[in-house]
Structure formats: C-alpha cells, structure tokens
Design a protein that fits this description.
This protein folds into two domains: 213 residues, 3-Layer(aba) Sandwich (Rossmann fold); 92 residues, Rossmann fold (3-Layer(aba) Sandwich), CATH 3.40.50.1100. The protein has twelve helices and ten strands. The strands form two sheets. Strands 1-2-10-7-8-9 form a six-stranded mixed β-sheet, with helices on both faces.
Length: 319
C-alpha cells in the first residue's frame, strides 16, 4: 500500500548548528501536502480504517489533524466530517472544507470537539480517527524516524513538540525500531498547555483545568496514556517554553530558513534558539512539525500579542 504522506526533506541547518555548537538536523514535515506531520499518522490510520471497511471518516481536531484526515479521505474517495472547536481559525476551516470535508464547530477546546465527534459518528455510520491516541496513528508517525535513519543520520538527541502525545509516541516507536533506544528525546510544550509535563510529574495522565496557551494545536488537556508509559522505557526530558519564546522562534526560523510555522512548532525550535539544557553539546534532530493555518499576518499578530510591558518584543538571544 502506497503511503498517503510524502517523504520530506532532512536538512542540516548551518545557522542553527553554529548557534547550538553541534549539528542540528531539521526534518521538515511542514512540507507535507497538508503542511504538517499529521498526514503521516492520520493518513496511515485512514488507510487502515478504509481497508477494514470504513465508509465515512470522522475526525476531531484543532485543525492540523482534521486537515490531514480531509486530505486522506479525498485521496481514498471516502467522505469526511471534521469537528473543530470554536477557537480553530477560519482559515483552517476553509482549508478542511477545500478538501471536500464537512466541518462542524463544537465547544471551546479539542476535548469538547472530540466528545461531539464520538456522539456524531454513529449517525453517519462513520469511524472516528483519533488525532493522537491510536496505534495506527503512532505507526504512521514512526515513518519519520525511518526516513532519517535511511539517510544515514543518527542524532544524539531528538526534539518533538507534544500536544496529545501522538507524535512523541510515533517517533519513539520509530526510534526503537531503528535501534535508537538509548537516544534521549526532549518533549517540548508551552507553559499553558503542559499536560505531558504534569503527567511525568504524577506518573499518570493528568487533566489540565484549562488550556492557557496560544499554541492551540498543543491544546489537549490530557496527554495519552501511552506517552506516559514511554517514560518507563526511554530516556525522556520534559522542557517547557513560554508562548513568547515559541512565537519568537517562529519569526527567527522564518528569517533563517524561509519556512513559516505555527507556535506549536516554534516551541520545539525554541529549544535550540534558547539553548535548552538537555540538548547542550549534543547533535540534535528537530521535528519541524509545521502547521497549516499560519500566515505572515497571523504571525505578526502573535508577535504583537506576546510583546513585553514596554511594547518591545523580547529577543530570546538576550535572555
């Protein structure tokens, strides 16, 4: 079966390597047709569901997962319904509809949209494609590491952004599959959406009271249980950054590499720009997870939103 996702570029960043003091490799999943890594896991899960007889696919999503399911459904010739929370940008809704999917809006955050999707699916005779907590999704995301390994690159640390934990679970599955079981993984979250950090501290999934971050695609109140289980099987470091650091990293990455990404991706990049302690002295693979809804205008709006009290944006290079 031909995968729906594309093989994406792997680049050694001269700019980031010089800043970091060791090799920094970028896996540019922002170059997927749906503009994010989500197409790997969602595409694989959709293919498996259709092979098992699914005739309608239902997704709950803050945006990127739903867009990936919509893209996959169109490729597979299967109707798709995507439930998004009210916070999801209008641009993202239009992108999803542009792939032929029906968009329904429900609730304030992803958790609300997911509950509605579960209730809606039986009436559509549909199968719910979970955006992060499913073995088929993890298997799809594992392909990212397999591609890096095939190019002969072995980093000394891997950086991923964490929302619900699907990317992390898939990357770890891929790392163990190619023999990187001893390579540390740095799991990055923004401070207002740190459900994985809370789960690591409690050694079990923890439900946040609210999502207080503008990185909305990291906004799952509860990380999946499998992500917590991986803490017992692999060296994992949790690292948090502010919304300001994530947005600043997006701007610097655009300047450095001509690639526009959303704050959920900027959080992972901030670990390099801000010299995260677990990465110092190590060659690093950063998953550039992308983000479909981001525009130059939106990035400018985020930059204005996170400006300091004096009206000047904080420069992470001075902190």
């Amino acid at each position: 079966m031909t995968p729906i996702h594309h093989v994406t570029p792997l680049l050694r960043s001269s700019v980031l390597s010089a800043h970091h003091g060791a090799d920094v490799w970028l896996k540019l999943d922002s170059a997927q047709p749906s503009a994010s890594f989500k197409l790997r896991g969602m595409g694989h899960a959709c293919q498996q569901a259709v092979q098992r007889g699914a005739r309608h696919l239902v997704s709950s999503s803050g945006g990127n997962a739903g867009y990936a399911v919509a893209y996959a459904g169109r490729q597979l010739g299967v109707p798709v319904t995507v439930v998004v929370p009210r916070r999801t940008a209008e641009r993202m809704r239009r992108l999803i509809e542009g792939e032929g999917a029906v968009v329904q809006v429900h609730g304030e955050v992803w958790d609300d949209a997911h509950e509605h999707a579960l209730q809606l699916a039986p009436s559509l005779s549909g199968v719910v494609i979970h955006p992060f907590d499913a073995p088929d999704v993890w298997a799809g995301h594992a392909s990212l590491v397999e591609e890096v390994h095939a190019e002969g690159v072995r980093p000394e640390a891997v950086v991923v952004s964490v929302g619900g934990g699907g990317l992390m679970c898939g990357v770890l599955q891929g790392m163990h599959g190619v023999g990187w079981a001893d390579t540390p993984l740095v799991a990055v979250e923004t401070e207002g959406a740190a459900s994985f950090a809370a789960a690591m501290a409690a050694q079990r999934p923890v439900t946040l009271a609210e999502i207080g971050s503008l990185a909305l695609t990291l906004g799952a109140k509860t990380v999946c249980e499998r992500a917590v289980q991986w803490c017992q099987a692999h060296p994992i470091h949790s690292w948090l950054c502010s919304d300001r650091a994530a947005v600043q990293a997006c701007g610097r990455f655009l300047d450095d590499h001509r690639v526009l990404v959303e704050p959920a991706c900027g959080a992972a990049l901030a670990s390099i720009y801000d010299s995260a302690e677990p990465l110092r002295g190590r060659s690093v693979l950063v998953v550039v997870c992308g983000g479909a809804s981001v525009t130059q205008e939106q990035l400018a709006g985020w930059q204005e939103q996170v400006r300091g009290p004096a009206g000047e944006a904080e420069d992470p290079r001075e902190s």
